[in-house]
Amino acid sequence: MFEAKFSPAAERNKEVILSVLRDVLPRSGDVLEIASGTGQHILHFAKALPNLRWLPSEPDESYRVPLHNIIEQAGLSNVADPTDLDVLEAWPDITVNAVIVANLLHISPFATVQGLLAGAARVLVPGGILHIYGPFKAAGEFTSPSNEAFDASLRARNELWGIRDLEEVTLVAIEQGLQCISIKPMPANNFSLVYKKTS
Ligand SMILES: C[S@@+](CC[C@H](N)C(=O)[O-])C[C@H]1O[C@@H](n2cnc3c(N)ncnc32)[C@H](O)[C@@H]1O
To answer: Which domains does the chain have, with CATH numbers?
Structure first.
C-alpha cells in the first residue's frame, strides 16, 4: 500500500477547470501537465476526455512517487508515467498539442513565469494551447481581500513568491509568440488564462 497525497482545493476546482478545457483543448493529441502535484486534476481530466493522451510531470520527488503510484493504480491507458520536469531547467524534447498548469505561478519565483512560457512555446505545435489556472492580480489590483491576505502569507513564506499580475504574464507570453485567447474569472477568485502558439 502507498499513501496518496490529496488536495481539497484540487477536488473543488477540478470540474470548473475541466469545463474550460472542454472548450479549448483539441479533440485528440497530447496534453502535457506541468506541476501535476497530487494527480487529482490529470486523472479527472483524462477520464473525462479519453481521446487525449495525458502526460503528467512533477519535479518534487515527494509528490512524483505517490503520483506515479496513483496513476498506476488508476490503470488509465491514456495517462503516461509522470516525468521529472522543472520549468526552470531543461524541458524534454517532445512536441505536444497543449500544456496545462494549475496553481504554480504564485508558489514560485517570477522566473517560473518566464520558464513556463518559454518552455511551453517550445514544446507546443503551431496552434497549440497553453492553459494556466490560478489566482492573479488584474491591472495591478488584488481581486479580493482574501487574495491580498493570501499574497502576504505567500511572501512571508518566501519573499520571491506572490500572486502575479495577469497582464505581466500575458506580456511574457506575447514575447514568446503566444497569443492571449481568453482570460476568464473563475470561482474562488481565480482566473483561467488561455494562450495559443501563433506559428
Ligand atoms: C500548489 S502545488 C499545485 C499542484 C497542482 N497543480 C494543483 O493545482 O493541485 C504547486 C506545484 O508546483 C510544483 N512546482 C514548483 N516549482 C516548480 C517548477 N519550477 N517547475 C515545475 N513545477 C514546480 C510543486 O512541486 C507543486 O507540485
So the answer is: 8-197 (3.40.50.150)
